[in-house]
Amino acid sequence: MTTIQAPAAVVMIRPHNFQSNPETRFDNAFQTPDTATNVAQRALEEFDTATSCLRKAGVQVHVFDDFGERETPDSVFPNNWFSTHTGGHVALYPMHVENRRRERRTDVIDMLKQDYRVSDVVDYSGLEQDGLALEGTGAMVLDHIGRIAYVARSDRANPIILERFCTHFNYEPLCFDATDQQGRAIYHTNVLMGIGTEFALICLDMIKDLDRRRTILDRLSESGRTVIDLSAEQIASFAGNAIELTGNKRVLALSARALDALRPDQISIIERTAIPLPLNIPTIETAGGSVRCMIAGIHLTRRPKRTAA
């Protein structure tokens, strides 16, 4: 049941001091102001309910607490600063704004080394000093089966680092320009599209270059996947920000808002091979990310548990 595309274990960061990040508002059109009281407490409750739902579905969730000492308002979105890959490879990424650079933490990497087979850690984070960023599996949507990195061009997806990543990790970069209905560049590719084992979610209308749009559609279709074409309105409800995981059965983790935005025919395509798993996170979504952003998949081989002599 487990596939290369759908990891059975994930890392999630529990936010004790959640807030919408003031440093990212200038280019994240998905952020919305939340003036209600108890925002941090509501986000914490949403997070705990979400991790409970994932565990009940059979997904292994490694939770790390962030108590807010380092002023990391976006720490609930760890998929941007690291990724893991089959063969024991881990990548660390440079982040676009200064306060997101503080999200990287050694205890997460230490856990991966202890519990999983890690052969190397490739660290691109030093390129932040040159003003360059590649924000992990937010900037890149990775087809782990076809070895393609789909990337919407933005300040968070530097082409120089992308080329290095693709060379190191054996992916083919497929870049494109994407804009929302107001003509604003899409800040992270993973709000525009998500790739499962047997299907792909994407808003083709946001890719204005028709030749590039056709190329992307062809590449997704050539992989044997059914392409679920989303509308701009569905993207605004985070319908593209989903991740396929392996639990007791294969599931598609997405927000409750995202699932509500999908049409019955689109849901039926997903349900052929995965069970939709809606997580209710309206407060967390005000920060401009959704379920996919909250989950860093572990594509590593677990070490056998040591037994006492």
TrEMBL record:
<protein>
    <submittedName>
        <fullName>Amidinotransferase</fullName>
    </submittedName>
</protein>
<dbReference type="Pfam" id="PF19420">
    <property type="entry name" value="DDAH_eukar"/>
</dbReference>
<dbReference type="InterPro" id="IPR014541">
    <property type="entry name" value="Amdntrnsf_FN0238"/>
</dbReference>
<keyword id="KW-0808">Transferase</keyword>
<dbReference type="GO" id="GO:0016740">
    <property type="term" value="F:transferase activity"/>
</dbReference>
